[in-house]
Amino acid sequence: MTEPTGRRERKKARTRKSLADAALRLFLERGYDQVGVKDVADEADVSVTTLFKHFPSKEALVFDLDDDIEQALVAAVCGRAAGQSIPQALRECFLVRESSHADPRFAAFQRMVGETPALRDYRDRMWMRHETALARAIAEEVGAPEGDVRCAALAHFALAARGFIQRYPDPSRAADRVFALLESGWADHPDL
Questions:
Q1: What fold characterizes domain 7-57?
Q2: Is CATH 1.10.357.10 correct for 66-187?
Q3: What is the DSSP string of 7-38?
Q4: Domain spans of the chain?
Q5: What is the pTM of this model?
Q6: Is the dihedral of CA 178, 98, 81, 151 positive or negative?
Q7: 57 neighbors 35 (Cβ within 8 angstroms)
Q8: Which of 50, 104, 127, 159 is most open to solvent, judged by the fewest CB atoms within 10 Å of its CB?
Q9: Each residue's pLDDT tens digit, 121-169
Q10: How far is 122 from 118, CA to CA, in rounded Å?
Q11: Helices 171-187 and 86-99, interaxial angle, to 10°?
């Protein structure tokens, strides 16, 4: 995430982080459904109104790095190694992102999301919100016109695959298989 430069932006970023940290701590301690937004606001020492200025919903408190995800997806496509295909770069991005969490609470976080239907749905919708930006980055990289159906399809299926592979006990193996399918379909279009 880019560091805010002005005092006001730094204060907003600190408040947002304080809210997200308080929410995660409370959700992991008590369970997502047992914690209300007022509990989170009180824990972060802000008003509920302030909480909603930073997060549009209770679910958004859990997924506070939404903008970072989009930046990482676009960077995976645009900054991939020479000779690496776009599907390979996206597969690597997903797996690195999942394995890079050093925080020991990450497994508990993943379990909480997996066990809470509202959070699973929000997570899936959140990832799919990046479809347009990812499709645009893919099109730019391969010189296709914006709105190219093949680029849009790759973006859509890659993002959908991310949630799909997490349901399997060995996500890395599942990712290998799913992205091999995407790779073969992508490779069938030599004009891209």
A1: Arc Repressor Mutant, subunit A (1.10.10)
A2: yes
A3: HHHHHHHHHHHHHHHHHHHHHHHH-GGG--HH
A4: 7-57, 66-187
A5: 0.76
A6: positive
A7: no
A8: 104
A9: 998 888 888 999 999 999 999 999 989 999 999 999 999 988 778 788 8
A10: 6
A11: 160
